[in-house]
Amino acid sequence: MDRCDICGTEGRFERFQLREMLFGLRETFEYHRCPGCGVMRIGSVPGDLGRHYPPAYYAISAPPASGPGDGRLRATAERARNRAALFGTGRVPARLLRRWARPLPLEVRRAVPSVRRAGLRSFSDRVLDVGCGRVPGNLIALRTLGFRNLTGVDPYLDEESDQDGIALRRRSIHETTGSYRLVTMHHSFEHMPDPKEAMASAGRLLAPGGVLMVRTPVMGSWFWDTYGTSWWELDPPRHLYIHTVASLEQSACAAGLELVDIAWDSSPVEIIASEQIARGIAWRESASWGENPPAGLDDATLAEYRATVTELNATGRAGRAAFYFREAGASSDRVRTGAVVK
Ligand SMILES: [Zn+2]
Questions:
Q1: Which domains does the chain have, with CATH numbers?
Q2: What is the 287 CA–ligand 1 centroid distance (Å)?
Q3: In angstroms, what is the span from residue 93 Cα to ligand 1's centroid?
Q4: Where would you tag: which of 29, 53, 214, 241 has the fewest CB atoms within 10 A of its CB?
Q5: How many Å apart are CA 21 and CA 269, to the nearest integer?
């Protein structure tokens, strides 16, 4: 008899044999799917899981550091410009300083919806990124926007450091202390063996009115229906849990949190990689688009993939999303199929 550690459902859960297809080891791992909340979880966590996180796993480059420009006046003008765009505050100084600032860059415009959803109101708001990785790309992106009270924690960091407004600490979420306006998990939650406990620890770290943002794959969506066990985001054995909206809500509820907003954020890469896995090509192999583009992929097909993910994101059927949580009862917002109903 199986028992779901998220929702408590008991019974015989459906079994799936998933293959490692990021590096192409093709080892199989058994996963179980809960018929109650729909969460997919690994049958047993491999004792040698560390073997599946080689240095190549972290071989991603940091985003370009296009911070405030040279010279104090330009830096001041561009900080005022970013503040006005992101928080809607300080519009008068931003206007007065406009002639010394370059036009608003795309990365700032793109950040506006997530900054608003996260409830951030100033560059001095404290932000914690859990599972920040050896290259803390998400914190570097926030630093580029102007945020300066940034902390990243990850139990697998090589070393701790304090530089340029970013403090990096080698620890788990359970060992982390402090009080944060925003706690983020950018594709780290699905790697954690104890999602309910992680959610509880995240709730403990929120300042009054603070927000927890979890970006994670979403089980049971169009990608699962279309690609099944070839869906790239299953990523066995690194992804220990592939959540559903229901399993995330259950985990949050047990931690005294509630779901207040969802931003679906799949990219065409998920389709490309899933198509390849269905044809037996792993992401890091030489025949892959990820290693040697275009790898037989023509522009028309790529455009079709882009249109598909745009549609999936707009209709709440994508394979990934950012979930926003607040302390239960603190917000009047309610979520229904991806849209906040005020
Ligand atoms: Zn369940």
A1: 2-64+115-341 (3.40.50.150), 67-104 (no CATH)
A2: 38
A3: 52
A4: 53
A5: 14
